[in-house]
Structures are given as C-alpha cells and as structure tokens.
Amino acid sequence: MSADQNGQGEQEYVTSPAEETLRERDTELHTADEAVARLCRKFAAGGTEIGEVLCYSGPGGMGKTSLLHRVRRLGKLQPGCTVLFARGGERQRNEPFRVLRQLLQPVLGSLPEEEKQEVFGNWYGIVGPAIGLVPPSDELEPLDPQGVRDGLDFVFTQLAPRRAPLVMVVDDLHWADQESLSWLAAFAVRSRELPVLLVLAYRDEFDHKTLPLRHQIESIAQHRHELRRLTPDTVADLVRAELGPHAEDAFCRQVWAVTGGTPYEVVALLREVRDQALEPSEENARRLHDLAAAARGETLQHWLDKLGPTTLRFAWAAALLGTDIRQTLAAAISAQGPDQAEESVRQLRRQRVLTSQPNGRLEFVHPLIGTSIYLTMPAATKTAMHGIAATAIENAGGTMLAASRHLLEVLPEGDDAIVRKLRKAAQEHLAIGAPDAAKRCLERALNEPPDDDIRAEVMYELGCSALLTDPAATVNQLTVALEPENGLSPALRVDATFRLSEALAHAGQLTRAAAVCHEEAQRTPQGPGRLRLEAAHFMWAAFQRDEDDAVGRSRRLEDMATALTGRDSAERALVAMQAWDLTLRGGSAARAVELADRALVNGRLPAELRWTGTIWGFELPALIGLTLTYTDELIRAERLFSDAIMEFEVAGWSGAHRGFAYFLMGLVRFRRGFLLEAEDFLRRGLRISERIAPDLPLQWDIVGVLADTLLARGRVQEAWELAEQYRFAPPYHETAMVLPDAPTLYGKLLLARGDRARAVEVLTEVGRQLDARGRYNTVWAPWAGHLALALAPDEPEEARKHAQDAVDRARTFGSASAVGAALRLQAAVTDGPVAVELLEEAVAVLGQSPAGHEHAHALVDLGAALRRSGRLVDAGEYLYQGMELAQQCGADGLVARARRELAVSGLRPNRLRTLTKDALSQHEWEVAELAVRGLPPQRIADHLDLPLSLVHRRLAAVHRKAGTGPEGLAAALGLPDKDSRTGDDG
C-alpha cells in the first residue's frame, strides 16, 4: 500500500500480522499516538509550520513495522488526514527514486489536471520522470541531481498544505535508494516548515555512503526510540498466551534464549512449535534451537519441505522482485501459468509468507522472510532468474530503469545485447538525475565485456556520466578512455578531450585543462574538431590566474580569429574568445562589442552555443556575456544571463551552473547600480556554492563581487567579515582567475578599512602582475585608481601618476563607465579647480553610461568639491541628485555622506522626499516657476539657456518631489498659477 487517503480513492487499512508483537512498546506507542494527534490538533487550529520527525530504530524483527502500521492506522482515523507510505527494499536499493515513487506517485498521479499544474509549476518535466509519472524525455539529456531535489522540494511544498495534515511513513529506511534517502534527509531538516509528520523506521545497516544521512536525520528528530529486546517475563507471557498457561518455566526461558527476545522470532518460533504440536515442557526445550532455525528459514531444505519446489520457485521470484510484487511478473519469472501461479500464491498465503495489498500487489508478511528465501537461492538459479526478470519487465512494457537492477546481477558472458540494454538504462538514469545509477550500469557493461569496437564508447559514456556531479571521477574515466590503445573514434576523441578539460576546469585545474586541449589539437587533423580544441585551449587559458605567455597567446588568438568568418560554432567560439581577450587587455570596447556581436545571431545565442549545450558548456556564452558586462552593454548582458537562469531551471541544473548564473546576474546588477538586487542574486549563488564544496572558483567569484557590493552600500565591516569567513585573501585560488580581479578587490577592502600601507603593497603587486600579462582593463581590475587613493596622503605625485595612467587606459578602452570611474578616482587625488573639472567630466560621461552607482558617487563627489570651493548653489543640486540616485541604488553609505555634505552646506538634506518647496534645489525652483507660468519645456530651455534633456530631468525631479502632476504643481509649491497672472512673462 503506497498511500492511505481519507476522501477520494480511500484504501482499506490492512492489519499487520506482526502487531501481536507490540509488547513492551508502551512508550513508543504513546509517542506515535501523541505525534499524530498533535499534528492534527495544531492543523485544525490553523497551524502550518508544525512538522515533526519521529524515528524508530533497532535490529530486524523488533516490531518497527508493527509500530508503523499503528501510525498509519491512527492517521487514517483522523478526519481529513493524508497518509503516505513507502518501504525500502533490500534488493531494490539500486532503483533510483524508488522510495519516493512509492510515497508520492499515488497522490500526485491522482491530482486533477488544474491542481497538478499548480503543484508542479514549471517542474513537471524534471520531477515527473523521477517519480515515474512520465517517461524520461526522448532527448535523454542529463539532469542535475540537485535540480531534481530542488524540484521535489517545490512540488512537496506545494502538495503538503493541500493534503494536510499529512503523515509520511517510511519503513526499512536503511534499504532506501540513495536518491530518495538524500531527499528525505534534506526534507527532514526543513520538515518543521510544513504540516507534516515524518515517521521513519530503520535498522543499523546503513553503508558508508548513507550513514551520514542517517546521522543528519537523527540530529533533528524531535523523538527517537531504539527498540529493545523483550524481557524473559514478556516472552513467557507470549508463550503461555500462544501455547497455554501450562507452559513450563524452563521451556519459556529457552524460547527467550534461542530468540534473544526478538519479537518477530518469538512469534515465528511459537507458530512452529504449535504446528509441530510440541508440548511446552522442559523436556522439549532442547528442540527449540532447531525449531528456531527452521522458523527463521535459514536453509533451502526448510523451504522445500514447507512449500514444495513449484511454490518455492514462485517465492524465489517474489523475493527477487523485493516489495510491491506483481503476481503476473513473478509468474513469468518462475515460468508458471496463471492457474499454477494462483495456487502458489494461495499456498504462500497459508504459510504466512505472502500477503495481498489492497492495490492487488503481493508483499512479504515480514521483510525477514523475503531475505531468508532469497538467501536460499542457488547461485546459478539466482543469476538466471535475474536475467529472466529483466527480460520479463522489458516484455511487459517496463523501462530499462526498472530492468537494469536485474541486469546488474547477471553474470558477464560477453553478450552485446546486455551491453546495449545497460547503456540505454544509463541514459535513462541520467535523464532522471541519477548519475550514480548510470555509473553502475556502465561499469557493469564494461565487465560484460563489450566488443572492442564499442568498448571505448562505453568508457567515454562512463566518464561523461559524472560530469555534473563528480569532476574527479570524470577526469579519471575520460583519461583512461583517451588512451591510444582504447581506440576511441576521432570524433569522440575530440568530444572526450573537451569534456575532460571541462571537468578539469570545474575542479580548478585550468592549466591542465588548457594543456590537454592544446596537446590533442596537435594530434587532430585540420577541420572543425581541431578548431574546437584550439578554441577550448584559448578559453581555459583565458580563465587562468597566471599564464607563462599571456601576451603571446593573445597575439596567436588574434591572428587565428582575424581570418575567420564566424559561420560555425568553433569559429564563433574563437571570435568570442577574441572579444573577451580584447576586453581584458583594455583594447577598444567598441571593437570588443563588435566581435561579441559576431558570435551571436541577432543578438542572441545560437543553438550550438546555448547555456546547457554539451558542445561548449556554459563558459563560452558566459564569456560573451562578460564581454558585454565590462563594455557597458549591460541590458544585453542581463538578457543573456536571464536566459541562463531560465535554461538551467528548465534543464533542472541547480548546482554550480545555476550558482554561476546567479553570480553573473549579480555582477551585472552591481554594474548597473542595483545593489540590493545584486546582493540578493549573489547570496543565492553563495548558498549554492556552499553545498557543493568549499574554495571553488565559483565561491571566490561570488564572495568578491558580494564584498564589493557591500562596500558600495557602505557596509565596510560586513564586507571585511565576509572576506574573512570565506578566506578571500592571498594567495587566492591556485590557478583560477577570479571575476572581477581578486587581488584588486582585496586591496579595495584594505583601503576601505583604513589599512593604506597594506593596500599599497597589495595593489602595487597586482599592477605588476597584470601589466606583465597585458591586462589593462580598468573596470575588471581598477587597481591603479585605488592605488592612487592609497598613496595620496604620503606620495601625492606618485598617486597622481597612477591616477593618470588609469585615465589613459580607460580612454583607450573607451567605455563611459571606465572613463568616468577613472576620472572620479583621479579627481580624488587632485586639488582645487582641476578636481572640479575632472569631476564635471566624470559626471557628464557617467550620465551616458548605465553604471548607476558610479554615477551617483561622481555626483556626490562633485557636489562635495563644489561645496569646498564655495559654489554652494551648484553643490546643492549635485548633492541632491547624487543622494537621490544613491537611494535608488541602495547605497546607504553614499546617501549618508551626501546628507552630511548638504548639512555642512547649510541645506536641508532630510527634506529630499517631502512635499514642500524646501525639497527643491535652486535650479529645480527655476524650472518649476517657469513651468507653473505655463511655459513648455523647450521655451524653458531657451529661457535658461539649458539643454532640453536637462530641463526634462529637472522637471521630472520637481514633479517627483512635489508629488503631483502639472495641474497641481502650483498649489503644491504655493505659487500662483498661470490663470491668476496677467500677461506673459516668457
């Protein structure tokens, strides 16, 4: 039985035969009663975050299953309560998501279509195949396991309130498949957030992979019970209840001794004693040892004597299937017709081996019986029947997902058909987000072994199976697959080399990633394959922190890309590389954008360069987006990064890929000055990076930009603490370049904290290293301007020299944000009227850029400089504008600074958002008075000798601050309107 639901589709509860063993379980029963009652009571009172976790553990036969039957019955008796049930299977641990399918498939599959759409949202294509509602996609694209888990989180979070109160019961958790157990362990941590009671039972038989998950569950369980063995007195009571009050003490004591007080074994032994009509006397106590062994079914002869060969063969088939047994399938495996199978089932029921469930499936009365019968199977019979089972499942229309666990048990015989089926099963496993299961199938396929002409292909597939989850395993397998003696085809050699380099790069081994592509390219004939490897070599080299010949590589890349037309994916890739390389070198931003455009089709990624593509990976489109990010094409970059997030979500990729997409979106929002949104995206990416592994290049990228965002918001101490928490300090990552440049960001942090000496040291070394590599971009690495700030108090001339160098490089690059930011920093180390001129130019240039925060900073700097030079009226306008823009950006520190400057100027900074005339600057008053007189914007511009665009901007500020449109402006400002005037003042 997979689900018990009151209301629709109600199923009858089946009493467990083992419930008679619930002796000495008063505490455990009371806990269960109270937990179910509490859940339903709190839900009825309007509670939603009321979940609990209840665990029962102990050896086999201690009554855990009986306790869970009790919990299920209690749940069913509660009005409106939904009960979900699943059981792990000893021989089904290799079926991915099997336990979750038992739990969720019945209730999710029965949802009305409209409600199903609400529950699944956009996750149906990800979660549906995993829990068996739909087959995997025809494309069989690999799914990220974390994406499937995230989808399950979403679906269950939507389902639980709709079917609350909800009791979720899992028996034999120690036999749950890895995929289901991983999700259950994660869900247990957040179970309090939902109206769900999670009840788990298990033995102490977890393997080394799953044991940490058990500890995770137990660490947050509100109630834990370890079931103890029965006492001799309780066993004696059971003996006399079963055999009569005349049972002698010595006999009772021996029953306890040979069973160890295990409830299941006590009941089974007493049943055997009764069947043998054995008198419960001291004289017969010596026979109990043999009878106990027979009751446990430890021997083949025992089951032959009890069932006979025909029925035993059906029992073997049932044991091989595990739980949730289909009679027709067991009959096919045991080669029995319908009538014979029916007779076998009748006999197995009489012998209390099998029981029927309301859904028509069969189940062992106790898991220990199934284990006992399976262990008595001769090895040859077991192997043969697993092979028959795989074929029977396939013939019955089942998927290779279901058949593959049986194929894993078949002895290798060099059968090409087995290899073919295992490869197909591996594809299906990957398509539901179960790479570990795919790996098992492919490893078994290699052991078959396959023919020599496809062996290398299987090795290649094995290497690729862990690409999303285990880069180290991918590296090992693909390295072996690429050995010359394995005979990989030329096309697969190119693809295997690229994927090997991708896995190396994701593991932070960028130097080796570039090297393997370069070496393989030298062995590959001219053509698209070689071009792809050469492009990959350039790509991984571009991401390296240190490179022996960066200038030479840039020259070679330029020579190669110049001759290309950009018609195929490899040529587009090289053009994209050239665009990014030109950006890092601080060449022409306009030229870099032109090259990036050549890599796109109508401004969008071509199909072969999509974010989830397997030919190039996500790094290549990322480089195109980064080029646009650092050349002020921020809206276009944001569109690309939005596509990345969407593609990764649709594909179910929730690991490093989505984390990197959040980083990119956070970076572009930071560049636009949307600091709150940037912080949100970056923290989301940081959470993903934390659950993958520490010190990944991704984590460094995110922490760097997040720290920069916090600095921009004025939260210096928080930025420093973040850097310390994630060890964002020298020596940084060994091989990977951080985006933006990590040492520059670290220097900015030191400078913000007031450690100028250390900042000078760090930024000077940054400049030396980047100059040696020919990287002069002042947006990606604005080290020179910040070094100037650090040097200014002690070495003003040296400071001005570095500031001028930064401006010169920014002008060479040519983007407005680069030039404006460099001018602002140059002004900070310059005195008097020259500083004002630099800031005026910075404001003008930044006004044409999308860099909102940088523009706000320049406005406030200019206002402060004008205030110091005595131009208070002009200072006020720029300070108000800068403060308002800083508020829009979320730059609280800059807002506070602007307010201080306004206060020193004698203005009223606290009135920025008031509805009185005091909120307006002098320049805004001028345009407001003329507007109230009825002059249109063009005549106002002519009258004041101002650009029309500036008039529009000031009018917008007037209406925003006054809180009204043109009709109510005069009243809001206390001015006479045009109708009360005589004549035309214009």
UniProtKB/TrEMBL annotation:
<dbReference type="Pfam" id="PF13191">
    <property type="entry name" value="AAA_16"/>
</dbReference>
<keyword id="KW-0547">Nucleotide-binding</keyword>
<keyword id="KW-0067">ATP-binding</keyword>
<feature type="region of interest" description="Disordered">
    <location>
        <begin position="1"/>
        <end position="28"/>
    </location>
</feature>
<dbReference type="InterPro" id="IPR027417">
    <property type="entry name" value="P-loop_NTPase"/>
</dbReference>
<dbReference type="InterPro" id="IPR036388">
    <property type="entry name" value="WH-like_DNA-bd_sf"/>
</dbReference>
<feature type="domain" description="Orc1-like AAA ATPase">
    <location>
        <begin position="35"/>
        <end position="199"/>
    </location>
</feature>
<feature type="region of interest" description="Disordered">
    <location>
        <begin position="966"/>
        <end position="986"/>
    </location>
</feature>
<dbReference type="InterPro" id="IPR016032">
    <property type="entry name" value="Sig_transdc_resp-reg_C-effctor"/>
</dbReference>
<protein>
    <submittedName>
        <fullName>AAA family ATPase</fullName>
    </submittedName>
</protein>
<dbReference type="InterPro" id="IPR011990">
    <property type="entry name" value="TPR-like_helical_dom_sf"/>
</dbReference>
<dbReference type="InterPro" id="IPR041664">
    <property type="entry name" value="AAA_16"/>
</dbReference>
<feature type="compositionally biased region" description="Basic and acidic residues">
    <location>
        <begin position="976"/>
        <end position="986"/>
    </location>
</feature>
